[in-house]
What we know:
CATH class of the largest domain: Alpha Beta
Helix content: 25-40%
Strand content: 15-25%
Number of helices: 11
Region (Disordered): 103-130
Distance between the termini: 50 Å
Oligomer: single chain
Strand order of the largest sheet: 2-1-3-4-5
CATH architecture of the largest domain: 3-Layer(aba) Sandwich
Number of domains: 3
Number of strands: 15
Order of helices and strands: EHEEHEEHHEHEEEEHEHEEHEHHEH
Structural class: alpha/beta
Amino acid sequence: MSVSELTIKLVGFNEAQRSNFESILNLAESKLQQQWKIVSNEGQADFFIFTEEPLQATIDSSIPLERRLLCTQDPNNAEQRIFVNTRMIPSLHSLVAVLNRQKQPQPADPASAPTKEEPHADAQAATAPPITDTIAEAPDTSTVFYPEQGLLKALLEARSAAQPLAITANALKLWIDPVANVYYSSEALENLAPYCLANPPSLSAYPVTPADLQRTVSNADMPTGPLKDLIWYVAYKSSQGRLLQGSSPEDIVNLLQWPNFKLPECGNYVRLAAFMHSNALALGEIAASVKMPATDIYNFYNACFLIGLIEKGLTIQLHKKIPNTERESLLNKIRNRLK
């Protein structure tokens, strides 16, 4: 189905609030049924979003009610309005719910619109494009891993964000500092597994100031870790045996650096990592070489690729044989040290 673009004008928002709102709108893109864009020109706007406080003073009576969208800081009013915090940062879940209920607005005065002569039914049939031309084939998520979804999408976007980001969902609370490349959370990584499923709980992601971030994590004495470790684990758990979008079993790959084997389940891949670090081989041929299911290799490969540990090449390079019994014993010792 073709996706239309609708436009929004923010009324009563200052520049910082507008920037924050636009950041959340970008995060919501994959969940929205239509494309949305913020505009500054009132004449280009399909809808108007108003802050709650200056409501009566700012609403132009010529704007139809169905084109007015309101914000609220009261959870009791959040069902029909966009729920925002005190800094006017909208809840991702609330923003998606409200925008997905909107439809393309009709002209204010249909009678004034220029009339067109209705073509004859036979002419319509002759000129109308086949319905199949406007229907896009849904992506195959059964074998292809699309990283731009759920918690992983939020983390990948946070990595390149200009300011810290807070990610919340139910009991989950993560704070991301993209400048220091670290994350803060009181949750163990294993507890993030439910957010790596095909239909994870709804997430809310919003920017915070560096001062707010430091105050929050200091007051809670929040544990921290490298952001790349968090991305590795979430990508690994989200892959579910599927190969990363844009990769192919024919790709010749080499592991540039070893991941952090202290991460949950990562220690199971010491032998695979040793082989991929010493050799460059087509991804689809590694399974037979290390006698490991291709689905496990894809999970490991996806996670390593998304944090920059994989290099793709053009030439197969086999330097070392598969670890023998003696080497296997050495690798077991390495695993034991990492526990």
